[in-house]
Write a structure and sequence with these properties.
The structure holds two protein chains of two kinds. The relative contact order of chain A is 0.33. Chain A has no helices and nine strands. Chain A is mainly beta. In chain A, strands 1, 3, 4, 7, 8 and 9 form a six-stranded mixed beta sheet that branches. The chains are: A mainly beta, B mainly beta. Chains A and B meet through strand 7 and strand 8 of A and strand 5 and strand 10 of B.
C-alpha cells in the first residue's frame, strides 16, 4: 500500500492532453514537501522528469508540467506522443515513515 | 557522464545473505547522499535505504530494518547493501540511486539511477 496514491492508468490519443494525480496527506504533500516525478520507459530505470513540483531538468520537453495544491499533485502531458507511453511515479517525503515515499505509479497508454 | 553500475544480485535461498555493490563514476561521489530503491517484478518503486555523504546517518524502510545494512566507501566510489535474512518478498530489481544533495531527508530527490541488479529469493 503506497503512501501516495496514483490512478493505475490513463490514456489518450496522440496530440491530446492527459493528466495524472498524486494524492497524499497531511504527513507528506500537505505539509508542503516538494513532489517530484519520474518516467520509467519499458525495461529501463526511472528517469527524473519533474523536480520541486514544477521544474524540468535539462532535456525534458516542455510538454511535461507539474503542479501541487493542498495534499495532492498533478503531472500533465500536453501534445501526447507515442514515446510518452511509460509508467510515471510521484515521490515526496513523509513525516510518519520519516523517509522518501513513492506513488503507486500510473501507466500512460497512447491510443 | 554519471554512471552507476550495480552488481551482486542473484538467486538466493530464503534466510541467506547477499551483498550488493554499486560502482559510481562521473561525479564527486563523496559530495552526495546515496540510496537503494527496489522494484518487485511488475510492481512499483519502493525506497529501501539511504546514507549521507560521510556515512554519518543511515535510514531504512521498515520492511528491511534490522536485516539490511547500507554502507559506502568514498575512497572507492562505491555503495553497498548487505542483505541478511532474505525473504521471498525481497525479490526485486535493486537500483543504486544518487541524491541531489549531500544529506538525505525531506528535500531528497533522485537525479541518476543505475540499471539495477536483480535479486531473487527462492528455495
Amino acid at each position: 500500500q503506497s503512501v501516495l496514491t496514483q490512478p493505475p492508468s490513463v490514456s489518450g490519443a496522440p496530440g491530446q492532453r492527459v493528466t495524472m494525480s498524486c494524492s497524499g496527506s497531511d504527513s507528506n504533500i500537505g505539509t508542503g514537501f516538494d513532489v517530484h516525478w519520474y518516467q520509467q520507459l519499458p525495461g529501463t530505470p526511472p528517469k527524473l522528469l519533474i523536480y520541486g513540483n514544477n521544474n524540468r531538468p535539462s532535456g525534458v520537453p516542455d510538454r511535461f508540467s507539474g503542479s501541487r495544491s493542498g495534499t495532492s499533485a498533478s503531472l500533465a502531458i500536453t501534445g501526447l506522443q507515442a514515446e510518452d507511453e511509460a509508467d510515471y511515479y510521484c515521490q515526496s517525503y513523509d513525516t510518519t515513515v520519516r523517509s522518501s515515499v513513492f506513488g503507486s505509479g500510473t501507466k500512460v497508454t497512447v491510443l | 557522464e554519471v554512471q552507476l553500475v550495480e552488481s551482486g544480485g542473484g538467486l538466493v535461498q530464503p534466510g541467506r545473505s547477499l551483498r550488493l555493490s554499486c560502482a559510481a563514476s562521473g561525479f564527486t561521489f563523496d559530495d552526495y547522499a546515496m540510496h537503494w530503491v527496489r522494484q518487485a517484478p511488475g510492481k512499483g518503486l519502493e525506497w529501501v535505504s539511504s546514507i549521507t555523504w560521510n556515512s554519518g546517518s543511515m535510514d531504512y524502510a521498515d520492511s528491511v530494518k534490522g536485516r539490511f545494512t547500507i554502507s559506502r566507501d568514498n575512497a572507492k566510489n562505491s555503495l553497498y547493501l548487505q542483505m541478511n535474512s532474505l525473504r521471498a518478498e525481497d525479490t526485486a530489481l535493486y537500483y543504486c540511486v544518487k541524491d541531489i544533495s549531500t544529506y538525505d531527508g525531506s528535500g531528497s530527490y533522485f537525479d541518476y539511477w543505475g540499471q539495477g541488479t536483480l535479486v531473487i529469493v527462492s528455495s
